[in-house]
Amino acid sequence: MRRTGSGWTALLAGFVLLATSPAWAEVEFYQKADRTEVGTEDTVRLSVVVADAPPSAQVQLPAPKDFQVLSSSRSNQRSIQLSGGGPAVIQDITTHTLILQPLRTGKLTIPPAVLTTAGRTYRTEPIELTVKAGRLGPPPGQATRPGLPDPFRNFPPMAPFEQMEGDNDVPVIPRGDSDLFLRASLDRDEVFVGEQTTLSLYIYSRVDLSSVDAVTMPKLEGFWSEDVESPTQLSGEQRIVNGVPYRAYLLRRRALFPVKAGTLTITPAEADITTGFLFAGHRVHRVSNGLKVKVKPLPPGAPPGIANANVGQWQLTMDVSPTSVELGQPITVRVILEGTGNVKNVTPPKLTVPSALKVYDPTTTDKLTPNKNKIQGRRVMEYLVMAQRTGTFTLPALEFPYFDPRRRAYDVSRTDPVTITVEAGAGGVASTGPSPTPLQDAANEQKNVLSAHGLRPLRYQARFVGPTTPLWEQAFFLPAVLAPMGLLFGLMLVGRVRGRLAVQTEAGRTRQQARAARKRLAAAEKLVGEGSTSAFYAEVEKALLGFLEARLHVPVVGLTREALGEKMAAAGVEPERRSKALFVLEACDMGRFGGGAELSERNRVLDEAEAVMEGWEK
Questions:
Q1: Is residue 524 within a helix (H) or strand (E), and if so which, with residue range?
Q2: Which of 202, 312, 505, 546 has the fewest CB atoms found within 10 Å of its own CB?
Q3: Are the C-beta atoms of residues 176 and 159 closer than 8 Å to each other?
Q4: How far apart are CA 127 and CA 109, in angstroms?
Q5: Residue 180's closest CA among 282, 253, 290, 46?
Q6: Distance of alpha carbon 568 from alpha carbon 616, whole angstroms
Q7: How far apart are CA 66 and CA 104, in angstroms?
Q8: 406 pLDDT exceeds 80?
Q9: DSSP state, 119?
Q10: Contacts of residue 129, Cβ cutoff 8 Å, sequence gap at least 6
């Protein structure tokens, strides 16, 4: 066997590896300010730098009593220095940045920062600043960068997410989060009831984004909402905000249809965002601005039968196939309502037919086709119609009244009447006159069948024979006379037994109904993270109503919330449990018809429903 290399070669390679291994520098800890003279309307950027600190190191940032901390952030970076032939020097640097604003004039001091690690304590030098009244100008070095002006030079101090009144399109930059902030906007903030307004949620950033870890959308009380766009990947576009370039990333876009008039509030959205890459990344939490929408009621002069959802541009059609059939064959009638508006909440007119036609319950299908942030599509109600006799029948025209917000006027979409011809089938007999009675139908059917097969009607010859023994001497006479009395006593006995059983099993039935309600609530729990929002809230409502009916021993379905509260109070239910039950029922109504698709809101409703059922007196 041939040997490759030698022991000396391996030893030499080990020395080379040790010579080129990285060397770690000593711990460095200091703080610095971007200026030494500042005005009361200016800000100071304080940087606390830690280099090569162990992972267990604890940093205590300064808390100056004469300054207001507007924002704080943290960044990490790693540097590697290579010198010819020497070992590589790796340095991990963590920078804590505080934006401070002085609260008074005079000679102010920023106290030192403290670093504690491995039983040792490091302190930075304090920093003295001279504070004068007013504004002394931009930070040092910024005047030489005309391309990036101060985005807040024309803004008075404001809360981090304060929004300018009447402005839903131009972002207001939060002072403490100017490099990365969350912004919600509406394409219009004044609409009619049922008219669409589109909510868009953007991230504005001047730093690199790694991922968006969680997004909590606003609560949309008073709106019917539909998703328009939910990107699965971050894709930014260049935007200029007050002269400052940003990358804008769309997180969600949702169509909102207000269901009531007045000033409706949209709460802020929240997001957890990871910025940077690899070793320099860190996670931040951002909260967007809140919004208000002024919802106007529909103007006077509305046609009869119009609903708040009948807003938009709509076209109603009726498709009948076939229009000529044989008796006993089905007819398909499709009532189609298509256009722009709240497709899933609009209701086409109900089909009406002559009494000679039987209509079965329809099936409803929806198809949405968002176009330029507008919800449009069609809703189809398909009916099955069966003719009861032959003849010619007319399906009357249908009407759909609606309000067109573009023209600010009411309109009505109408269909044409449709004529249907029903003919007798092959070998069948049908009349276009009044419908025959059941006896006439049976007689005609027997006559036709007999004549078709060449048979004669059957005749039965009866004989009457007089009795040979008197009736009261027959064997069945006495039992027949006593039978009614025995039957009466038997019924009385059965009634008493059933009454006792009913009393004994009343508690059992109550427990059985309560168990069934809890099983239904367990089924609703499976719909928290999957399935439709309306199905979840409907299941929770049915479970709670069934439980209350079992415990209160009275029907509760159909009662108003006030009447239900009175029933629970009369039954001695404690106030806390009553308020929880009414809250769950109210939340179910809002979740089914006004949004409420957030996972946290579903979990809260489920927990409150379980709290109502737990610990109830048996």
A1: helix 477-525
A2: 505
A3: no
A4: 6
A5: 282
A6: 12
A7: 7
A8: yes
A9: T
A10: 33, 35, 36, 37, 38, 44, 102, 107, 108, 109, 110
Structure token pair of residue 333: 């009638």
Distances (CA, A) of 309 to 30, 101, 256, 379: 64, 51, 12, 13
Tokens of 551: 């415990």
- Each residue's pLDDT tens digit, 275-290: 876 555 678 889 999 9
Give the whole-angstrom CA distance, residue 215 versus residue 208. 18
CA-based nearest residue to 600, from 608, 611, 592: 608
The whole-number pLDDT of residue 239 equals: 86
Query: Who wins on pLDDT, 338 or 505?
Result: 338
State the pLDDT at residue 454. Answer: 43
| Separation CA 481–CA 473 (nearest Å) | 12
Distant-in-sequence, close-in-space partners of 52: CB < 8 Å, separation ≥ 6: 24, 25, 26, 27, 28, 91, 92
225 vs 461: which has the higher pLDDT: 225
d(CA 530, CA 300): 43
Q: Sign of the CA dihedral 400, 403, 409, 410?
A: positive
**Which of these, 189, 198, 190, 188, lies nearest to 375 by C-alpha position?**
198
- From residue 74, alpha-carbon distances to 93, 102, 380, 540 in Å are 11, 22, 56, 45
What's the whole-number average pLDDT of the chain? 77
Task: Report the distance separating Cα 174 and Cα 158, nearest Å.
Answer: 8
Q: Angle of helix 575-593 relative to helix 533-552, nearest 10 degrees? A: 150
Q: Give the sign of the dihedral formed by CA 594, CA 597, CA 601, CA 603.
A: positive
Paired strand residues for 366: 379
Q: Is 193 within 8 Å of 297 (Cβ atoms)?
A: yes
Beta bridge partners of 59: 115
Residues 159, 182 contacting (CB under 8 angstroms): no
Residue with tokens 């089938």: 425
Q: Give the three-class secondary structure for 17.
A: helix
